[in-house]
Amino acid sequence: SALAMATPEKTADKNPTSIGWDTHKPVSVIPDSLVREGDGPDGNYPMRAKFEAMCREAQKKITAQIAEIDGEATFQEDCWTRANGGGGMSRVLANGKVFEKAGVNLSVVYGSMPQEALQAATERGVDRAKGMAPGERVPFFACGLSSVMHPRNPHCPTMHFNYRYFETDGGVWWFGGGTDITPCYIDEEDMAHFHGTYKRVCDNHDEKFYPEFKAWADRYFVISHRNETRGLGGIFFDDLNDRDPDKIFAFSTEALNSVVDAYGPIIERHKNDEYTEQEKIWQQIRRGRYVEFNLVYDRGTIFGLKTGGRIESILMSLPQTTRFEYDHKPEEGSREWDFLQACKHAREWV
Amino acid sequence: SALAMATPEKTADKNPTSIGWDTHKPVSVIPDSLVREGDGPDGNYPMRAKFEAMCREAQKKITAQIAEIDGEATFQEDCWTRANGGGGMSRVLANGKVFEKAGVNLSVVYGSMPQEALQAATERGVDRAKGMAPGERVPFFACGLSSVMHPRNPHCPTMHFNYRYFETDGGVWWFGGGTDITPCYIDEEDMAHFHGTYKRVCDNHDEKFYPEFKAWADRYFVISHRNETRGLGGIFFDDLNDRDPDKIFAFSTEALNSVVDAYGPIIERHKNDEYTEQEKIWQQIRRGRYVEFNLVYDRGTIFGLKTGGRIESILMSLPQTTRFEYDHKPEEGSREWDFLQACKHAREWV
Fold it and tell me: Which of A123, A234, A299, B259 is deepest in the core (most CB within 10 A)?
């Protein structure tokens, strides 16, 4: 903490918005649905159960496909529920042949938040909160599927995705999500495949989506203190509520179900590539940067850590092994240097 | 980011207090003093130059002693200055025989902060800010020496210290600092030596210091989301301004110059200990926890990252290699489990 002396200890950071949820309870078998009974398909909030079912289906499919690519390890399943509704299921593969660590987490949350948080989160929230008493908290529901996969081979990129649906009891709702890729070397063909897959998915729903969500990913996945992205982007969106929810649901569903199409072939292509010790060290250094992003900037991670989420599920995103070297600078013109340039100046891949 | 869906993206975290400093400029030779000319021993703020000189002396001495314990690697020196005064010097030893990474950073900062930050930071600040116009920022000076040392051998603990002096141009001042130790196994003799050394140092100045500052360290170095400390404590204090500054200066000086007395013998005793692969893995897991603390909770680190400090100096505190394992739980009754118990329930060591 080189600069601790410049920090008035008591004011340096603020507590995050309290969403006041209860702690989780491990269960051996997950209920058929984590959504409260009244929120089911025949209830007031049909999208809640619909989105959860879609996520659970995708979790099953994706983990089966990834286990097949790995060929050796299997996913360990951990389930939990919460007293006031909601819960989750983590599926984590560790010490595989291809993957050092790969996790896919389902999470369903019932909580409440201050009106100001809602107002800041979405423009429509302002209207919704107008009729409420000052200080009154807004109950909300959130469901999402998120994942990070860290392969062993330095020529196999890390991949992250997160698709989520958010809805207040007042009926304000939005979708968010994205899939992004973090190699440690540039492979033009890989990037054209990954970004190309998501461009096609986006184009099936709205031709404005890919350029907008690609640029959003380039802005979001930035390690600000280093002025570089953590990887080579993908798509990212949030607060999406500008059309029929069923249309956004269809887009989210296709994006989520395209993860393995976008990522799998890249892993198959490189999982047996030879590599040098230097390449492995570079991968480890880049994984250190991944940790810096996740623990310092990723709002979901920080929020989860400070508000009582299931720690092991939140932190499954951290790579199994990392390296933090003092003042590491790749030689100008090297492949490592090329990669860093692409992290400092976002490029188009399709 | 398992819980990203529960986070209103735009409100999850706040920007830290801006202290509005200028960026640093590398220099090959460090000036004799980084303190502004008017702040010298004959100027208005004699403690500024006095504290800096003391830190620089200690930096030289400590790095010489640590290099001798390592026996192979030497410290790399990086110096920088800032246009409006201040600057720093990092001394980092990497890839040593005994130490994987060891750094000692000198930092001198001139900045300004909002009155509210000052008022929150120290009670006397309230009075000082009373005569100021609303919104007027408070210029301040800060100087500190900080360090983290990560040995290779899992039986050699990591050690951290940070001693600092803080003063506004209005004359509000305080001292802060501490030294703490992070082994990954309990060695009662080591802990009695480390804590015993600092108890003697404290007792030389005020018999209330050790019990108070030991308890403060146990409260401060907590990985809150895991409800465990990062290590086995030491001393920590802040906002100390309740007596003649020369008396606190004398205490800070002795505490800083006792770092190697407290830590060196432990390293000498264990640097050639044999260890198993399992012990090395456990060390790596505990180093992952060290990263979690530093990037999520250490206010100096976060503040530095978000306000334009010299990144490589701030992050020299991160261990060179780490491990993040999913849901790792030591076997009940094992030495790893014993260690965790001590992290969950603070113990007395002297």
Answer: A234
